[in-house]
Amino acid sequence: MEGADYEVLSVREQLFHERVRECIISTLLFATLYILCHIALTRFKKPAEFTTVDEEDATVNKIALELCTFTLAVALGAVLLLPFSIISNEVLLSLPQNYYIQWLNGSLIHGLWNLVFLFSNLSLIFLMPFAYFFTESEGFAGSRKGVLARVYETVVMLMLLTLLVLGMVWVASAIVDNNKASRESLYDFWEYYLPYLYSCISFLGVLLLLVCTPLGLARMFSVTGKLLVKPRLLEDLEEQLHCSAFEEAALTRRICNPTSCWLPLDMELLHRQVLALQTQRVLLEKRRKASAWQRNLGYPLAMLCLLVLTGLSVLIVAIHILELLIDEAAMPRGMQGASLGQVSFSKLGSFGAVIQVVLIFYLMVSSVVGFYSSPLFRGLRPRWHDTAMTQIIGNCVCLLVLSSALPVFSRTLGLTRFDLLGDFGRFNWLGNFYIVFLYNAAFAGLTTLCLGWTDYRCLSLVSPGCLRRPSTSDLQLGVGGRKLDTAICCPGLERRPGVGGPQDLESERVGGRGKLSLLHCCII
């Protein structure tokens, strides 16, 4: 063989080894995400659905759980996609000739973007509908019972759903872009209609992020306040512990002596309420034993970090709105060739890239908090070891829609200059100036409105009577999903001004059905 042939063979071998290396790295990354998601789902699933006497139902639920694990792993990969790309670009800029990071290149990053796009389409359009129909199917009438009969029914239902969705997408594309859609045929399913369908889903996800993220930014302060120990000036744990003990004693007396109350008692509900109070009392004991550093330094620092991150997010969006008016380069666009390691995507260099990554994660966490805090999706919130299979499927679909829209969401708001790779940059609506501008303005306005409304509610609670030391009547402990006035369960406190009284007894209801609260009609 001549020298030129050896050079060609060497280049082909190098390309082959790079391709194999990228496949191995992608497989290892996805396997890690899959294991983490499987561990998370097993903590929320309902064990009774997998240990049931009917082996067929248990097998169906196990298969559906694996499909949900795959979908959740893709969602987690979509969340990490943009931060990983930004950090990789900064690493290549800092260490361009390092031998140990040769595996990190533009081809690998571009391949990861394409894989996430492919698996997101696969999960949203095929796997999750299959998992839902599979858990709800029973087999066709007259057919033999078994898993295979359920598979046949699920496949038929999925084919009918695919035809329905495909027809709707074809009609929608013909309405939106008549000239182009009229030339497309149904044979262009993979090249035209599937990306168009995913573009519509991504647009819905971006709109969902527009609503959930401002709500989550406002809720992050209250959620953090519940997780961390507040200074003694802001909460009195001793009185909360006393009230919790009084309520537990009242419920325990009702369980031991049910004939002393003229209302019918639900013993199972009472036992659940006692367990909830015991768990709450244990948590209060742990909070009371917190160190002074954790109490006086941790909470203020956490609030300060949230305030800085929220203000920085709104400031960046406001600056991006001005850039959209004067510079066309601020518009989000796609990048087909991943040219990493050439220029930093932040004006502050590596420090700015770290800030971008932190803001992206912060907004994603805020969007999830806002999603589960909204009244429309509050019932979808997973519960520890008590989440039904259909509820797990719904959570996985919603999280995938939110996470797959995160790269487009971040680039549209101007949180990063990193252009969208692969098919993420092919969305038609990204090139519409009015959509992008109105989206940025709506995000800034909704965030300011939610934060202002939260501050107004907090300030409206500050009255001359609230500046005194908080009494037990101000501390309401949730029991069984409803709030009980502590003056009712604490003897001797009902005579304080503004606490207890017949009007409070009359206003406390159970479930809105006109029944008096159990603690109100039962004297301790």
* Largest sheet features: 2 strands, parallel
Largest sheet strand order: 1-2
The low-confidence parts are: 462-524
Number of folding domains? 2
Let me know the number of strands.
6
* First and last CA, distance: 99 Å
Mean pLDDT: 74
**Secondary-structure content class:** mainly alpha
Q: Your description of this structure?
A:
- The longest helix is centred in the first third of the chain and has 42 residues, at 3-44.
- The protein is 68% helix and 3% strand.
- A hairpin with a 4-residue loop joins strand 5 (509-510) and strand 6 (515-516).
- By secondary structure, the chain is mostly helical.
- The N and C termini lie far apart (99 Å).
- The chain is built from 16 helices and 6 strands.
- The strands form 3 sheets. The chain has a two-stranded parallel sheet with strand order 1-2.
Protein traits:
mainly alpha; disordered C terminus; two-stranded parallel ribbon; 3% strand; two-stranded antiparallel sheet; 524 residues; single chain
Can I get a quick summary?
The protein is mainly alpha-helical and 524 residues long. Helix content is 68%, strand content 3%.
What is the strand and helix layout of this fold?
Layout lengths: L2 H42 L10 H40 L11 H31 L10 H30 L1 H6 L5 H39 L9 H20 L10 H22 L3 H35 L7 E2 L14 H24 L15 H16 L1 H7 L7 E2 L11 H28 L16 E3 L2 E3 L1 H4 L12 H6 L1 E2 L4 E2 L1 H4 L3
Parallel strand pairs: 1-2
Antiparallel strand pairs: 3-4, 5-6
Helix pairs in contact: 1-2, 2-3, 2-10, 2-11, 3-4, 3-11, 6-9, 6-10, 6-11, 6-13, 7-8, 9-13
